[in-house]
Amino acid sequence: MSEALLETKELSKTFNIGKGKSLKAVSDVSLTLNKGETLAIVGESGCGKSTLARLLLRLEQATSGGIEFDGNDISEISGAVEKQWRRNVQMVFQDPYTSLNPRMIAHDAIREPLDNYAEGTKQERNQKAHDLLHRVGLNVDFGQRYPHELSGGQCQRLGIARALALNPKVLVADEPVSALDVSIQAQVLNLMMDLQADLGISIVFVSHDLSVVRHISDRVIVMYLGRIVEEGPADIVLDTPSHPYTKALLDSVPIDHPSKRRSKTLLSGEVASPLNPPSGCAFRTRCPVATDQCAQTIPKLRSVGPKVSAACILLESK
Fold it and tell me: Which GO terms describe its molecular function (predicted)?
């Protein structure tokens, strides 16, 4: 069995937005990230996947629930303890340009985390920045360039190099290739996979692009309105989805050849507002197979097959 590295237990985040109203962005999420694996979090915009990523990074404080890293509870850490923990979990941002300081050359951007943690001597920090440039496929000459002198793909490679500077155990990548051209996306994804194989790091990969998820992930978590509705190995979930929402997501992916066209599950309406979510199953207002029973209780995540779990009362009865 794989060894768990990062775990959450019934993690929730509620934002107070004034006038007595609140927005529950993440609801009772329990997940496990194993050492050396890529865990993808997918869903439509507004499903809570980016908020969940920020909770894992502790950029947001959870309203309830717990987070464990390598067997230790990190939910309430602060000060020097938190600073030392942060070197273990680093982020790769969606927009490679705005994630970089426009006044800082590439070499200095990579060296900055090392300076912040006073890693080694100045010469050793310079050498590590040089080595990381090479490791992500950038020539040493790029180290003297500013972000505006780099392409989008080069900026994202720089962002990955910076994230690796402190030898983290986990990378949280929030839509890291969505702003890049398709050909460059493949290069960056392959780079991340090669780095994972070489360094043994774990990756939380947030995305809405299921073709990208299929390429890079080991396991998949599907979210809808702040809750997990299905999880399991990527090949099983993406090839034989169990939850109606997962099926609809996969049916929305364009088919590249007319002969491969199939009947599709079409969803009506928009994602319900988290300010006023539906009773029972939040997906029932769009679900093509919903029954009156779906409005009565919130379905729990249960096993529906080997290593696969889903939250649907219609699956529970099978």
Answer: ATP binding; ATP hydrolysis activity
